[in-house]
Design brief:
Blueprint lengths: L1 E5 L4 H14 L3 E7 L4 H7 L3 E5 L15 H19 L3 E4 L6 H9 L4 E5 L6 H6 L5 E4 L16 E3 L6 H8 L5 H8 L10 E6 L6 H13 L7 E6 L5 H8 L8 E4 L5 H7 L2 E4 L3 H10 L3 E3 L9 H11 L3 E3 L2 H4 L5 H13 L2 H13 L5 H13 L5
Parallel strand pairs: 1-2, 1-4, 2-3, 4-5, 5-6, 6-7, 8-9, 8-11, 9-10, 11-12, 12-13
Helix pairs in contact: 1-16, 3-4, 7-10, 8-14, 11-15
Length: 383
């Protein structure tokens, strides 16, 4: 079976495709994305073949660059047409982002069935346009269905966000009880196994807003928190900045600061509460591991999709939301965080209820389900 994957622009559009690729195992696979994006490094690092097309996104603000967009789109479509014709896929999976448009459209024009996977509660522009011609559209959030064209709805499936099979197993095995959390803390140098733990995540690139807000909380509002400790992933690019300017010289609680957490399943397992962004993959991981969260959606995300993701978790009772504008004032951000975190960390029953709600949203079989549908549409079986 030959499967072509198309997507890119951000990791949120790339990692779901890699999860499905892992579930497909022995299929012949090709990933097509942008020549300038981050996807080539990530995809080749995962051992998949990669081809790039000269595609760039349409700027949402007025800019002279948009005048060149139609010409660049035609160039990208021609390049994608040649790639599709040469590879001859039996089915194509588009995982969104501007880079997925030309390959998916070229495949459809050549009669290849296309399948889309939408990670967010608010579907992206590419998904909304291409869904009209898709054999199937797989959604992570049921809320996204209302924003798709009416004729598409009978071809949609709510399968959840694909997470790599191995990572999904690790997250599911993290455990919900106090003993599991205690054991996980014992594996992380610097953490006290007996203390309640706040995990702070800013994503792979880090979040300057989250970092500064946590720093201000530690500097002037720490007395508001109950006895606890913090495991803080700053992001590689922002780590030095945090260590030099945002981490107080004297700390009243244990704080373990890392640029990046390699063993995410252990970090999640150690946490009583997670403070993080609301990217699609992060939300899927929170559900799989069953951890309550305080979500700070990235306001500049395309279509404000992180706010939609956060509301989906909040409506289910799995998360609380703090908007970016509430943390924008440096005089108030530390106190706002401290008061909310203190409320939650002091209420074990509330945390347990949120954890149960998060776990109810988990879809650990998403990658396998989508892989099986791709095989069925291609007239094959998953090896």
């Amino acid at each position: 079976m030959r499967v072509l994957f198309a997507g890119g622009g951000t990791g949120g559009h790339i990692y779901p495709a890699l999860a499905v690729a892992e579930a497909l195992r022995r299929a012949e696979m090709l990933f097509v994305g942008s020549k300038r994006g981050i996807e080539e490094r990530i995809v080749r690092g995962a051992g998949l073949a990669y081809r790039g097309v000269p595609v760039e996104g349409f700027h949402r603000r007025l800019t002279p660059e948009n005048l060149l967009f139609p010409f660049r789109l035609v160039s990208a479509l021609i390049a994608a047409w040649r790639i599709v014709r040469g590879f001859r896929p039996q089915v194509v999976l588009g995982t969104g982002g501007f880079a997925s448009g030309p390959p998916v459209l070229a495949a459809w024009l050549q009669g290849v069935p296309i399948v889309l996977q939408e990670q967010n509660a608010h579907p992206g522009v590419t998904t909304r346009i291409l869904s009209r011609w898709a054999a199937e559209v797989h959604l992570a959030f049921a809320e996204a269905l209302d924003e798709l064209p009416e004729g598409v709805r009978d071809r949609t499936r709510c399968t959840g966000n694909p997470v790599r099979v191995s990572l999904a197993a690790d997250l599911l095995g993290a455990g919900a009880g106090a003993d599991s959390r205690r054991a996980a803390r014992g594996e992380i140098e610097g953490l006290d196994p007996e203390r309640a733990t706040l995990l702070v995540l800013g994503g792979s690139q880090g979040s300057r807003l989250l970092n500064r807000s946590v720093g201000r909380m530690l500097e002037g509002e720490i007395e508001r928190l109950p006895p606890c400790q913090i495991l803080w992933a700053t992001g590689r690019k922002l780590h030095a900045e945090v260590m030099e300017t945002q981490l107080p010289a004297s700390l009243e609680i244990p704080v373990v600061v890392r640029p990046y957490l390699e063993e995410m399943s252990t970090a999640y397992a150690a946490a009583d509460l997670v403070l993080c962004r609301a990217g699609a993959i992060t939300c899927a991981e929170l559900a799989l591991v069953g951890r309550p969260s305080v979500l700070v959606p990235l306001a500049s995300a395309a279509g404000d999709h992180q706010s939609h993701n956060a509301r989906a978790l909040s409506d289910a009772g799995a998360a609380r939301i703090v908007s970016e504008d509430r943390l924008a004032d440096p005089r108030r951000s530390g106190r706002i965080l401290a008061e909310l975190l203190s409320e939650l960390l002091s209420d074990r029953e509330a945390l347990d209820e949120m954890a149960s709600s998060a776990r109810s949203l988990a879809r650990p079989e998403a990658a396998r389900e989508i892989a099986a549908r791709l095989a069925a549409i291609a007239g094959e079986e998953v090896a």
